[in-house]
Amino acid sequence: MCRHRLPDTDRNGKWGYLYWNGYIPANRINSTDPRTGKPNGVMGVPDNYVPFQTPLLPTPKNGGSASDPNFAFYETNTVFVPLKDGTVQRTSALAPMIGNMAASMLKSVRLKGRGE
Questions:
Q1: What confidence tens digit (pLDDT) does each residue in 45-88 have?
Q2: Strands 14-17 and 88-92
Q3: What is the pTM of this model?
Q4: Residues 6+ away with beta carbon under 8 Å from 61
Q5: How many CA atoms lie within 13 A of 71 on its CB side?
Q6: What is the pLDDT of residues 81-115, one digit of tens each?
Q7: In the beta sheet, which residues pair with residue 20?
Q8: Which end of the chain has fewer CB atoms at under 10 Å, N or C?
Q9: How far is CA 50 from each of CA 2, 3, 28, 29, 60, rounded to the nearest angstrom?
Q10: Is residue 24 within 8 Å of residue 13, measured between CB atoms?
């Protein structure tokens, strides 16, 4: 269990706990609707909150701008790889949000080169 105790605004202001240190988009941490002032995100998250995993392209705190060329790729592990012929290939990287975190006391992984 994560050590952060948060107010649960969905249940009449009662308190709850953040049970897993998961990714919360920065624009949803302690955010409110600008028109109504009502909470529209996860409230009570401390300023020093660091998630266990994040995508390679997380949403910025201000929500980003539609003019940002990476806007469509927020919350993804999309990367752009330049090829030898000068073209650019879009692909998904094997990154923390894609892999799993299978826990074990001891893990042995054999690494070898392509030619071996």
A1: 887 888 888 888 889 988 889 999 889 999 888 888 899 999 99
A2: unpaired
A3: 0.59
A4: 26, 27, 29
A5: 8
A6: 899 999 999 888 765 544 555 555 555 666 666 66
A7: none
A8: C
A9: 11, 12, 14, 11, 14
A10: no
User: What is the spatial distance between Cα 46 and Cα 6, in angstroms, rounded to a whole number?
Assistant: 9
How far is residue 94's CA from residue 56's CA, in Å, rounded to a whole number? 10
Fill in the amino acid letter for 26.
A
Residue carrying structure tokens 């969905």:
10
CB–CB of 79/55 below 8 Å?
no
Alpha-carbon torsion angle 43, 47, 48, 54, nearest 10: 60
Closest CA to 90 of 53, 56, 67, 114: 56
Tokens read off for 80: 């752009």
Strands 14-17, 5-8: pairing kind: antiparallel
